[in-house]
User: Fold this.
Amino acid sequence: MLQLPTYADVIDAAARLEGHAHRTPVLRSATADARYGAQFFFKCENFQRMGAFKFRGAFNALSKFDAAQRTAGAIAFSSGNHAQAVALSARLLGMPAVIVMPHDAPAAKLVATREYGAEVVQYDRFAEDREAVTRQLAEERGMTLIPPYDHPDVIAGQGTAVKELIEDTAADGPLDALYICLGGGGLTSGSALSARALAPGCKVYGVEPEAGNDGQQSFRSGKIVHIETPRTIADGAQTQHLGQYTFAIIKRDVDDILTVSDVQLVEAMRFFAERMKMVVEPTGCLSFAAACAAGAAIAGRRVGIVVSGGNVDLARYAALLAGD
Ligand SMILES: *Cc1c(COP(=O)(O)O)cnc(C)c1O
Assistant:
């Protein structure tokens, strides 16, 4: 039996993050409200440290290391936001970090990860298995592997964003619905723990790219479905399957998994840029894009939107907005 994290773990994570993570703003948009006939509350994790909610889970997990684990440090494999989250958390907590990245990872990501103080170890994506490379290094150096989503401390940390969102909007009544960007499910499962505890009547939806709907297939079939790496602009949601922990919570606490197309993601990205003056990465647009398509389901409702991150190469961002 898996020992699933609970809302009590989210509360403990919030205490560890206090003074280290930003309590990100909850923004409103009169234009969005008028256009869709709902009241939107945007939880802006694009303004979180290192630019995405992933700081929450990584910092919480690393904070729980014992003395021996701290001395040896943390190791992770990622070329995305989890890499930077582990690197920054390790630096803040004064421990070493190794990030395993493919040899052809974008130069900007390598530089950013090194700037946060981590050692980057590259592997050949075509000839080597990244998990095997990482495990071997972890063993050699006695480092603790922190996965990007399927870990109770990571899930509990991610749950703190929606805890804040619900607390900060509670004065005028509970939220009716919550839309969350879904990749491997760390953010969605943590958010669901907070929503079930603080706003039991609130509908909780995970949103993934249409091309990579393994989460939806898993939710509907009741078992974890594996897919090939999907082709989508939502690079933070190109996961091939949910995790053991994340799926168990999602199955129990989430109302449905929805999907959106890349075209819808670009429309949402343009809305954030034009109307709210925010840079949001494609993956961070999943939640709002699904809410925009929800029609009658959100009419007259109070709707929470988790904007998950804002890390996007500017040339790519410009090209997407220009429709290239
Ligand atoms: C990682 C990530 C996601 C997906 O989170 P999971 O916990 O893997 O479901 C969504 N948005 C952004 C910006 C991310 O970095």
About this structure: The radius of gyration is 19 Å. The pocket of pyridoxal-5'-phosphate is lined by residues 52, 54, 80-81, 148-149, 181-188, 236-237, 239, 281, 283-284, 308-309 (CB under 6 Å). DSSP finds 14 helices and ten strands in the chain. Residues 152-169 form the longest helix (18 residues).
